[in-house]
């Protein structure tokens, strides 16, 4: 049994996501940091789509009602097990009644807590992930609350291991994100396209959630003949939409359709970093081609697979 003592700012159950249902408006709702989530499951000897807890903010705490192996990945945190400091990105044993506390976040924004025993939760549309808008999946279709209890299943203890420092990505701002052209890039003036793609600094607004991240900067300008909206079309995670006010919104994992012009898309190899953009952080974009973006993603997948093997 897991019992939540404190939820941090915000915590939900996630997994690798629900895919293949975008045509009927069901988004992935997956872990925003795919790399951290994959490594978490590797550390614990779990299946690649095992449920885990995605957390924002310090003061997160829980206790367990049985012996289990636990791990924390994602944002670098200051964590303690029964007041003894823990190394993040490593697995560690928890005995019955012990208390895990994450005091604060030192680098990054979201972190992931998992267990070697599966959580006894219901799969909905082939996933454990929480869909916040439709209120299904995860734990009762909502964020975790103080006092929530979840049972374990498939009891086991995992082997203890840790991730070498060289395999832990930097999450420090300023964040540099590589982008490829979006379908409506021609809707914007050359100066605006250049401002987006060649080093202009954007600031992460406090208007952000798992649906999207709004940025703050000098507004981008539409061409006079261009519409400021489009007939709603499908969007992918990492899509950068520009509403009528000219201020970019980076879409995350909770939308399948949108009606704003899509000026660019964050390369998939860089999308894990979107999980760690927090209010006040600075963001810079670099435009690359499709072939380079594909090559970057292939190399990242090879690196993950090589590390896991």
Instruction: Find the structural class using helix and strand composition.
Output: mainly beta
Radius of gyration: 20 Å
β content, as a range?
Answer: 25-35%
> What separation lies between the terminal Cα atoms?
31 Å
Name the shape in a single word: elongated
| Average pLDDT figure | 94
Regions with pLDDT < 50 over 5+ consecutive residues? none
Q: How many E strands?
A: 20
User: Helical content, roughly?
Assistant: 10-25%
Overall domain count = 2
Counted by DSSP, the helix tally is 3
Biggest sheet, in brief? 9 strands, antiparallel
- H/E topology pattern: EEHEEEEEEEEEEHEEEEEEEEH
In short:
With 309 residues, the chain is mainly beta. It is built from 3 helices and 20 strands.
How are the SSEs ordered, and which strands pair?
Elements: E1 2-6, E2 10-14, H1 34-44, E3 52-56, E4 60-64, E5 68-81, E6 84-86, E7 90-94, E8 99-115, E9 118-119, E10 149-150, E11 152-153, E12 175-181, H2 190-197, E13 202-208, E14 212-216, E15 233-234, E16 239-242, E17 249-251, E18 257-258, E19 261-266, E20 282-287, H3 290-308
Parallel strand pairs: 12-20
Antiparallel strand pairs: 1-4, 1-10, 2-3, 3-8, 4-8, 5-6, 5-7, 5-8, 9-11, 12-19, 13-14, 13-20, 14-17, 15-18, 16-17, 16-19
What does this 3D model show about the protein?
By secondary structure, the chain is mainly beta. It has two domains: 2-167, no CATH class; 175-308, Cyclophilin-like (Cyclophilin). It has helices spanning 34-44, 190-197, 290-308, and strands spanning 2-6, 10-14, 52-56, 60-64, 68-81, 84-86, 90-94, 99-115, 118-119, 149-150, 152-153, 175-181, 202-208, 212-216, 233-234, 239-242, 249-251, 257-258, 261-266, 282-287. The strands form four sheets. Strands 1, 2, 3, 4, 5, 6, 7, 8 and 10 form a nine-stranded antiparallel β-sheet that branches. Strands 12-19-16-17-14-13-20 form a seven-stranded mixed barrel. A two-stranded antiparallel ribbon has the order 9-11. A hairpin with a 6-residue loop joins β16 (239-242) and β17. The chain is elongated and about 65 Å long. The mean pLDDT is 94.
